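Follow-up to my post from last week.
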Amino acid sequence: MIEPYAVVSDQPLDEVAVRRAVESDASGAVVMFCGVVRDHDGGRGVRSLDYRAHPDAERFLADCVRRIAEETGFAVAAAHRVGDLAIGDVALFAAAGAGHRAQAFDACERLVELIKQEVPIWKRQHFDDGVSEWVGL
Amino acid sequence: MTMVTVRYFAAAAEAAGVEEEFLDLPGDATVGMLRDELAARYGADMQRVLASGSFLVDGTVQRDPATPLGGAVDILPPFAGG
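User reply:
Got it. Predicted complex:
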């Protein structure tokens, strides 16, 4: 079986590589999801996000990619960035390629949901009033 | 008693004030026993992490308190990727 494309990096993510990993001659649809750092959360202004990952996070991300590929039969791939991210930075690319768009949207959505559930990554949110907190606690 | 290496991440590291330590626990220690020990040792901030967090034992995420610990365990706050 082909090794899944699953990367956790403290460097800007390679969007083209994620897309290439799911492209094939049989793919009539390629869906790319970009998870982007936004400037607000729960009605408060956000200045930046600090992502931390467990040293094994990439293995967990690869497990997610492998599982969705097996469950759907379609090509999927993902890359997650860690470190200090600014508003507008991409934290997550997830991609799916399939024969038709409904399949690709579905596979991509399932992949993102699984990543959020299964991959040991954490983020600290810095609000614009100077307060910061871990998300999800 | 057995020496267990405990690593803390993100909010768990902040609650413990360290990223790693070694705890003497009974040889048959479980995830539930460690959870009680850490809650007593570090108080409310750690209890909040443990209430929704999980434990990495032998490369697998565990939430069942009956899970045996072995020699090393990682304390994982609730995941917030994406």
